[in-house]
Amino acid sequence: MTGPTEESSVAAVAEWPEQVAAVLNGAVDAARAAVMEVSGPEVVGDYLGVSYEDANAATHRFLAHLPGYHGWQWAVVVAVSSGADHATISEVVLIPGPTALLAPHWVPWEQRVRPGDLSPGDLLAPAKDDPRLVPGYSASGDPQVDETAAEVGLGRRWVMSAWGRSAAAGRWHEGDYGPESAMSRSTKRVCRDCGFFLPLAGSLGSMFGVCGNELSADGHVVDKRYGCGAHSDTPAPASSGALTYEPYDDGVLDIMEKPAADAPEVPPTEDGADSSAT
Q: Other CB atoms closer than 10 Å to residue 230's CB: what's the count?
């Protein structure tokens, strides 16, 4: 149900004929009765207010007491014509309120599996006519792959299509190991110059490789323009020779023997001194 806000609609209704405004505002009981006729008296809650659709129509709202519809409202549209002494019920509908419990946005079943959902033991077949795959006997568009398959005389049943490789490259370039990631922006050194960088074969090797540094992006595909603080050319921090703690000379310490466990305790004198010292 759409319409002006209550503040603007209340201001507008002040300009309408007094008789029309009074009939619209006074149709609360008729609106409640219409809801009760549709669904019974036990499902109609507190009156929530009225909003105005135009000069001859208004919507009265009631809290809905229905299982599974927490926060929903009954909306009853009433209308009145010029000169009429009562309003006519036009529509009774159930609408979500500001705190309504709504069903999640519908996602087609074939789109519900997301990256990271696959668990050990799960089986996930590619979609029929998956644009990411082409038959292995056809040219893949990757010269190195095609050349190797032709020389050996063998090939996989399916290989990635040019579209599939382009889509993968886009994800990798824009992901956590791409040049625009927070880690990459924090350093000037890039992977293409790093000794831990293992380039990919084929056409994707022009942009990507795998990180072999177990202290960094180990095993992940990284963009050549990605970078991190564990680059092989990262210099060791220069030592200033400053000591963390002040040195001390153990020659100025007083070494005292621990008293025997069976030695009797000597009570102190009145002035606090040990009487054994005298």
A: 17
